[in-house]
Amino acid sequence: MRLRDKVAIITGAASGQGREATLLFAAEGARVVASDLRGEPLTETVALVRARGGQAVAVEGDVADAGHHRRTVETALATFGRLDILYNNAAMVSREPDGDVGLEAIALETWERILAVNLTGVFLGCRAAIPEMARRGGGSVIITASVGALVGQRAHNHAYVASKAALLGLTRNLALEYAGRGVRVNCLAPGQIRTAMMAELYDDPARRAWFEAMTPMGRFGEAREVAAAALFLASDESSFVTGSVLVVDGGWTAL
After folding, report:
1. Is 160 noted as a catalytic residue in this protein?
2. How far is 28 from 38, CA to CA, in rounded Å?
3. If phi over 0 gives left and psi between -120 and 50 gives alpha, with beta otherwise, what is residue 188?
4. Which of 42, 58, 209, 242 has its CA 20 to 30 A from that of 69?
């Protein structure tokens, strides 16, 4: 029960890493406000938590909308009375139908939408939640970046990689601003994780073999492994950790 009596907001909770984190955090004692744009699978996540004896509520909405973040914070306070953890996990990736991720293939609308979700959405979530945490004596913020923030990622277009790299700077600056007020801000950098977002990579035998060969541990990671890393950053076990990047990539960036 490493999160006993804590209240967490988790974005992108309808599937993948977000769903796994929601289930794990609740199993460890947290009461969770689960956020996602996709209403039906988000409801399923909350139902899974409750079926296992945990506490969770759903707030459907777009992380690129500042009003959505205000609603999630208000829901946390109204339903559970406090806010201790913000896990900015929601993200999107877009690949062109012909597989071209090059500079000339990206539509401006695609660039703007990816940055709105992956970067501005995190900024808006932090701006809504961190001041509340600071007023109440502290908390933990976790931001999901990517190994694409650390090394080039030719499997993704430039908008995705740029958005994730920008999150490293945002993490460090927020950590410096709020370290004296008890709010820790850290970043996760997952590698190749077996989620629906990555399905087109691991469903293709040739591409899957290439990614597995490029990963020293020889496999894709699982969403539960990223959730376990997020749990460490959310818990008091990481009480002296802020402004850091925790890489969960099977050795990808060690090459």
Report:
1. yes
2. 25
3. beta
4. 242
* pLDDT at residue 206 tops 90: no
What region, left, alpha or beta, does residue 138 occupy, with left being phi > 0 and alpha being psi -120 to 50 degrees? left
Rounded to whole angstroms, how far apart are CA atoms 170 and 188? Answer: 13
Which pLDDT score is estimated for 232?
A: 98
Distance CA 42, CA 30 (A): 17
Q: So what's the pLDDT on residue 208?
A: 85
Mean pLDDT of the region 25-44 = 98
Query: From the CA atom positions of the chain, what is the Rg in Å?
Result: 17
* Domains of the chain, start order: 7-249 (3.40.50.720)
DSSP annotation of 64: T
Summarize the confidence of residues 35-58 as an average pLDDT.
98
Residue 156 identity? H
| CB distance 183 to 134 below 8 Å | yes
β-sheet bridge partners, residue 158: none
What's the full length of the chain, in residues? 255
Distance CA 190, CA 246 (A): 8
pTM score above 0.90: yes
The helix/strand/coil state of 160 is helix
What phi, psi does 94 have (nearest 5°)? Answer: -135, 125
- What does the pLDDT read at residue 97? 56
Give the pLDDT score at 153.
74
